[in-house]
Recover the amino acids of this structure.
């Protein structure tokens, strides 16, 4: 690997181990075995490098959860597929705890990190379509209002599940709880009017 790749790998390790706020430029440079100046040369700033490392880590999470979901969603019954998918996501948080901790840490500090909000917003649509595809067991989905709406739904559940898991793994909803909640809410919202 070259200095640029070494810096990216070191930044990813630092994010997992120390989080965003406690990672210093020196931590990253030392971990990569390069000088501090290399960060500025290759990425412009420590923050730009950390954001790049976060985006790459999110993509790797997407690939790993895709593998887990493809196994979980290989059933014909849509309810069973939904339950298995959410249980697979919940069970996968432990391997990526640092990534989820950093994301919540960054959400709290978006106002103080120039450019990060725009970078994350730009990735929203792609992320939503990716989630819609993953949870439906497809390799890709069309860029339509319906698929984006599905992605918004899945993304909202995912962030809620991740937040609850970070507070306490035993608090993270199971697929069964999500299915029951979905059924009850759908009946309340879409069901026949009550007298």
């Amino acid at each position: 690997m070259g200095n640029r790749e070494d810096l990216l790998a070191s930044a990813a390790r630092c994010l997992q181990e120390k989080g965003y706020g406690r990672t210093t430029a020196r931590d990253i440079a030392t971990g990569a075995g390069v000088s501090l100046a290399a960060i500025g040369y290759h990425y412009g700033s420590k923050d730009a490098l950390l954001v790049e490392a976060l985006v790459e880590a999110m993509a790797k999470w997407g690939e790993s959860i895709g593998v887990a979901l493809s196994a979980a969603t290989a059933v014909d019954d849509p309810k069973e597929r939904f339950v298995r998918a959410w249980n697979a996501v919940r069970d996968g948080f432990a391997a990526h705890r640092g990534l989820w901790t950093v994301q919540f840490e960054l959400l709290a500090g978006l106002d103080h990190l120039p450019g990060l909000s725009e970078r994350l917003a730009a990735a929203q649509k792609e992320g939503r379509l990716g989630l819609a595809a993953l949870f439906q067991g497809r390799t890709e989905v069309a860029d339509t209002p319906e698929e984006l709406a599905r992605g918004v739904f899945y993304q909202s559940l995912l962030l809620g599940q991740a937040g609850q898991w970070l507070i306490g793994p035993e608090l993270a909803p199971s697929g069964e709880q999500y299915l029951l909640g979905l059924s009850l809410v759908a009946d309340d919202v879409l069901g026949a009017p009550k007298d």
Summary: The two ends are 68 Å apart (CA to CA). The mean pLDDT is 89. The longest helix spans residues 46-72. Residues 58 and 139 are 17 Å apart (CA to CA).
